Amino acid sequence: MELPLLHLALVGTPNSGKTSLFNALTGSRQKVANYPGVTVERKEGFFVTPLGRQVSVVDLPGTYSLRGRSPDEEITRDFVLGKATGETVPDLVLCVADSTNLRLTIRLLLELKRTGRPMILVLNMFDIASRRGITVDVERLAKELGVPVVTSIAVRRGGTADLLALTDEISAKLAAEPQENSWRALSVSELRATQREADRIIADCVSLPASPDTWTARIDAVVLHPVAGLIVLALILFVMFQAVFAWAKPLMELLQSGFDVLGEFVHATLPDGLLQSFLQNGVIAGVGSVIVFLPQIIIIFLFILLLEDFGYMARAAFLMDRIMGGAGLHGRAFIPLLSSFACAIPGIMATRVIDNKRDRLTTILIAPLMTCSARIPVYTLIISAFIPARDVWGFINLQGLVMFGLYAAGITSALVVSFLIKFFMLRDFAPAPFMLELPDYKMPRLKSIAIGIYTRAKMFLVRAGTTIFSMMVLIWFLASFPQPPAGSTEPAIDFSLAAMIGMALAPLLAPVGFNWQIAVALIPGMAAREVAVAALGTVYAIEGGKEAAEQIGQVLATKWSLATALSMLAWYIFAPQCASTLAVIRRETGSWGWMGVTFTYMLVLAYAASLVTYNVAVALAAG
Amino acid sequence: MTDTTDTRSHMPLGLAQRGYTGVIQHLAAKQAGSALSDVELESRLIELGFVEGARVEILHEGLVGGDPIAVRVDSITIAVRRREAMAIIVA
């Protein structure tokens, strides 16, 4: 007879090696989603025990207690207590401990015991503990705690054999009737008493060597040095950005040309008409414009996961905390914001490392202000067409200076917005004090990294892809319908809904110096910023589209005033011109509201910046 | 937890310099001026292992104002801002 699915839950403190144990147990049989209504990642995996029992295991967010002081920790508490909506009460809780550091986990376990759930204490990373001379009297520990204890080495093949055997043994005799739950939130004195009890048990069962991990101390002497540490951080970031721009570029170009070839093939194979246009411009170009970001996303996550597994991320947060704190940002916001220079999408996805809701939201809201790589084609086009390539003060290239100014404007405005959010919008959220464990350094494991990248890439393609794809189809529809009358010589887009919207918007955009052609180009530009370049080519009826960027520049230089060009640059610093980013914000915040807030505030900023730029430029006779 | 009878120089960990070693005497969340409530701050400190009798050592300091600090608490290292460390009374 087939036994029902056995439900396991992994509970442990942050840095307990919970996730590597989860990966060791389930391999790539994982499902990553969000818990309903919150932005907490829900990771479930599946495996089969040696005796053939089908098991589902959920990797719960790391926590130091069941108090539930953040949405993540509330999930862990409710899940264990069987109160989480739509979740099965776990049949067995695996409390995962870092064997080199038992204090905090033993206290958590004593608290967990009160929930009455059947439980196993898993002493993970037991090999590292043994190597450091830490010895644990496992039998005595189990007796003192009243809970079965098993050792494991998640990162080694067969390192979870004992755990699997014990799971089989326990699941065979799990009591049918539920046990009494006597858990309630601990008072400060109970908490203290529990920690004392934990310390007593550890003193009885564990012998610690005199000296701590010398490698961690040696590395930290450099990495956490106030000056040397910041230099190391800057070097790591430099390599990371080189990688994101340089390594990803050939792959992105390959993907892009692949989609171009595919589009051409469809164009050549199918007869002219709606189906051809839909497949080539809607489906292939739309999906392609998303998938070309995949190499950048994989490289950024490769670095983030490597640094996280190594134990460096907490150090980077330590180094940057005070420096970013002035703008109301948490130290952990640093990496996501830097990633946003490549593309806001992986940047926003990377905000998952920030555990406080308020800090995470602030970071998500300002990430799109970082100048992403998709703005570069637009900036380059306008700068090369309007800004003379001469030197100022003898050695600075004026075009380069303008480019730098655009980046600086993005960063400055992000810091100002963060500061304003802190003071006006998110006051009700409890600010997160910076209290963070700096774990011992560990060698990152290839398997864990590979699984991490795989699940994130899959999530990006499937979840964001569906939303982005539907927006692309919508934009294609707007730009293609209604069809031009037979025999017309004007560009087809002039007859479309996009043109009608563009013309309708033109009076609104006139004060910032935009003509109706720009207004029309801004609509397909919603798909991805750089698409606006091709769209401008289309509305000005230039043959050749993207390849003719230089030609577009020449045409623009004759059709636009300098004031309009500058206004367009100012617009692009702020404008929420990216459907994909908005879709990711919607998904990561779990709310249309925050997506709306982002869209609105960026649009207002863009309009204001363009208005000021245009009028100042006109006043200075650049009109 | 107020054992003011001890005559050795008690001080908040938040005022200690890099290299300081000592033992936690008691927690005084009220003195910290943290944005957290007293109960919340005390709970979190205990959860990170800051309990009476624990040995502490300041291993590292940040660049700006020596803040935050990296504190060795028995067998683990915790990063904490000096403001919150004011609640940890050591000697």
From TrEMBL, chain B:
This is FeoA domain-containing protein. GO terms for molecular function: transition metal ion binding. The keyword Secreted does not apply. Keywords: Iron. The keyword tRNA processing does not apply. SMART domains: FeoA. It holds the Pfam family FeoA. Coiled coil: none annotated. InterPro entries: Fe-transptr_FeoA-like (IPR007167), FeoA (IPR052713), FeoA_core_dom (IPR038157), Transcriptional_repressor_C (IPR008988). Residues 11-91 form the Ferrous iron transporter FeoA-like domain. Transmembrane segments: none annotated. It comes from the Bacteria.
